[in-house]
């Protein structure tokens, strides 16, 4: 019995000694390598592992994933080397992205062609600030500029500013009758950005904008339709994102949840304010060495159902590929997108993917009941094939080419070319 107690005591001492040694392993210093265009003190401010702190592999892995999320970082990894005693040297190696990106988007429906051209810098001054300018021609002229600095104040606080002047011909519905209006939206927006922790981030702010609707054609039966409608509005916005994705170059695994609330108030006293709620869920799963499955669900709802100038649109780049440019308006929307991406060939700087996809969307017509969600004219189902040309060392440099064909009656088909994965 005495030998048993002695053995048990020795085992406890060894376990405590082992635990104490594990707990005393500390970081002597952290060295960042590979950052030529990104300001080193900026990167160091984002890394939560510090010299003198306990050596924690889980925290280091989070730090690496945080760096990979930055536009200026294509890939990152860490290495640990024993120095002396209980001290260890940590090296974080960064493979940088090229971040000045010219872009060109093209989409077609029948014989009509729309295009957008612009340029974005995503590592302005080496601090991962973004500056974007664009011009769009869809028979009308649109342009805009956006400045976004998520780490302007410190590792958690930032701002975003934008100005946009957008114009397009859009359908407006008076019950079953359709009219075409030129829609113009000129807006200025300011947001405060806050990174709560590794997974959660918030955006709060608002915008002032002027909407102008100018009658073009159609709806001849509606005698009292407005010929010109000009509305000045302000908007309050709150956005939350839960981000739990592990990224390895063009591959994603995990999910992203987005929730947004908007309150819109017109300055004209005869117009009631309204609210918009939007929720999006993106899911990614790596399959084998070369495959990546993706799915997205979008749900949007606005309280201004009675107006013909509804908040949501059916559009190539928003929800259904191949359907056309802003072909329908709605006061509520539900959309599902699914695709499978397979890397057919790649090297250390380039990857080529083949994609198969299916897009479904259902809309509530302005002024209609929720039952209009299942009305045949409000259902869209397109399937198609596409390709992705990916520059692995250039931020968001994925050239997307998709051709979607409608499977339901009156659904359109067309080519959609854009920059970046669809979702």
Report on this structure.
The protein is mainly beta and about 425 residues long. It folds into 2 domains: about 100 residues, Ubiquitin-like (UB roll) (Roll), CATH 3.10.20; about 325 residues, Porin (Beta Barrel), CATH 2.40.160. Helices cover about 10% and strands about 60% of the residues. The protein is built from 3 helices and 21 strands. The strands form 3 sheets. A 16-stranded antiparallel barrel has the order 4-5-6-7-8-9-10-11-12-13-14-17-18-19-20-21. A 3-stranded mixed beta sheet has the order 1-3-2, with helices on one face. A two-stranded antiparallel sheet has the order 15-16. A hairpin with a 2-residue loop joins β2 and β3. The longest helix has 23 residues. The radius of gyration is 26 Å and the shape is globular. It starts with a helix and ends with a strand.
Quick rundown:
With 423 residues, this protein is mainly β. The chain has helices at residues 2-24, 40-46, 57-69; strands at residues 26-33, 73-84, 87-96, 100-109, 112-124, 129-137, 141-149, 157-174, 177-195, 200-218, 228-248, 251-266, 274-287, 291-302, 312-314, 328-330, 332-346, 350-364, 379-391, 398-406, 413-419. The strands form 3 sheets. The chain has a 16-stranded antiparallel beta barrel. Strands 1-3-2 form a 3-stranded mixed sheet, with helices on one face.
């Amino acid at each position: 019995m005495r030998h048993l107690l002695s053995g048990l005591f020795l085992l406890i001492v060894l376990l405590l000694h082992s635990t104490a040694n594990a707990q005393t392993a500390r970081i002597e210093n952290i060295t960042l390598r590979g950052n030529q265009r990104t300001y080193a003190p900026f990167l160091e401010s984002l890394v939560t592992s510090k010299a003198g702190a306990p050596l924690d592999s889980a925290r280091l892995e989070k730090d690496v994933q945080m760096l990979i999320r930055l536009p200026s970082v294509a890939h990152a990894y860490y290495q640990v080397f024993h120095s002396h005693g209980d001290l260890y040297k940590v090296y974080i190696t960064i493979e940088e992205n090229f971040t000045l990106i010219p872009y060109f988007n093209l989409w077609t429906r029948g014989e009509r062609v729309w295009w957008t051209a612009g340029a974005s810098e995503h590592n302005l001054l080496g601090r991962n600030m973004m500056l974007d300018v664009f011009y769009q021609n869809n028979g009308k002229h649109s342009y805009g500029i956006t400045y976004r600095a998520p780490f302007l104040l410190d590792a958690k606080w930032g701002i975003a500013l934008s100005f946009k002047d957008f114009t397009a011909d859009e359908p407006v519905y008076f019950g079953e009758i359709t009219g075409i209006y030129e829609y113009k939206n000129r807006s200025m927006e300011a947001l405060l950005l806050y990174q709560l922790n590794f997974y959660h981030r918030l955006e709060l702010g608002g915008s002032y904008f002027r909407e102008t609707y100018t009658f073009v054609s159609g709806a001849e039966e509606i005698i009292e339709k407005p010929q010109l409608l000009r509305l000045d509005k302000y908007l309050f916005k709150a956005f939350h994102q839960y981000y739990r994705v592990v990224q390895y170059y063009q591959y994603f695994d995990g999910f992203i949840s987005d929730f947004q609330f908007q309150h819109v108030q017109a300055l004209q006293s005869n117009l009631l304010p309204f609210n918009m709620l939007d929720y999006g869920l993106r899911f990614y799963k790596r399959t084998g060495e070369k495959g990546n499955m993706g799915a997205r669900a979008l749900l949007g709802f606005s309280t201004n159902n009675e107006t013909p100038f509804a908040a949501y649109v059916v559009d190539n780049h928003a929800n259904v590929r191949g359907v056309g440019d802003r072909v329908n308006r709605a006061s509520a929307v539900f959309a599902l997108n699914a695709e499978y991406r397979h890397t057919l060939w790649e090297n250390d700087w380039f990857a080529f993917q083949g994609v198969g996809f299916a897009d479904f969307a259902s809309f509530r017509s302005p002024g209609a009941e929720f039952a209009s969600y299942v009305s045949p004219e409000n259902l869209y189902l397109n399937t198609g094939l596409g390709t992705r040309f990916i520059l692995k060392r250039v931020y968001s440099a994925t050239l997307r080419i998709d051709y979607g064909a409608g499977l339901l009656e009156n659904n359109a088909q067309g080519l959609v070319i854009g920059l970046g994965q669809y979702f």
